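Exam revision sheet. Question 4 asks you to relate a sequence to its structure. Input first:
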Amino acid sequence: MKGEVIYFSCKAGKEKILSLCGTETGDGNSSLKYIFGALEKPELTYSALADENYGSFKFNHYLRYGTDYFRVSFIRNDYRYEIYRDYDSEETSKEVAGIMVESLATGAVKANIACLRNIKANFHPLSSTLPCNEESALGCTR
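Answer key, structure tokens:
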């Protein structure tokens, strides 16, 4: 799609993808969309427009030497979905990414789906667009 930007994408299983992409139109009609599942038949989608303050999409970013944690979260029904990409050189030299689904009612993690391969992350443009998730201890390094 013209003007589409991929902020995050990875393979999460044999046929499944996690994807966060957006359109930058420059006329106030920009949008952000999360997709999970097979490309032909997604299991879950969530989208929001820029003029709606991108719905419940929020970001967190923590950065220090050898460590870089980035989160984009949104709320749908009674669950918080948190797309993550972590790098911590003290723990491992590998990038870890995926999505965690948490119940808002109980705080219990209902799912943590890890990216298995083909991780593409370009979250940084979102830090100037999305509001900070003030509930997270990670903060919002911009």
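Marking note for examiners. The longest strand covers residues 67-76.
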